[in-house]
Design a protein that fits this description.
Elements lengths: L8 H13 L2 H5 L10 H12 L11 H5 L9 H15 L12 H18 L2
């Protein structure tokens, strides 16, 4: 076994590691141009999402969000697989308590697929 630390030493070391990991100096070396966004962009996206704006500042298309996709599908097969997954999540047998009253949600999923197919020309 390792040696035993004095009382409070483990907590002090944890705090020092956390401070070094999340320090402002370390964050300032981060380049938002690497594709992950700045702290302000992430904060704005989170606030927009919480407020119900799923198409966050044009980053994600609302149709893709509805289908649970982060990027446009590469093929029609990928799109249909995403549609199947989204419908299963809504369906009472698989994910939801009841499928009654979800007609509009099911229709929204199918409309989103139709728009993406028309946009891609498949």
């Amino acid at each position: 076994m390792g040696r035993k630390l004095p009382p409070g030493e483990a907590a002090r070391r944890r705090a020092a590691r956390a401070k070094a990991t999340w320090s402002g100096e370390r964050y300032q070396r981060y380049n938002p141009e690497d594709g992950f966004g700045s702290r302000q962009q992430w904060t704005g996206a989170a606030e927009a999402f919480v407020n119900g704006n799923v198409a966050i500042a044009g980053v994600l298309d609302a149709d893709l969000v509805l289908l649970g996709l982060l990027a446009p599908p590469a093929s029609k097969g990928d799109l249909l697989k995403a549609r199947r997954t989204a419908v299963k999540l809504l369906h009472a047998k698989f994910g939801s308590d009841t499928a009654d009253g979800y007609k509009l949600e099911f229709q929204a999923i199918y409309d989103a697929v139709d728009r993406i197919v028309a946009q891609k020309g498949w």
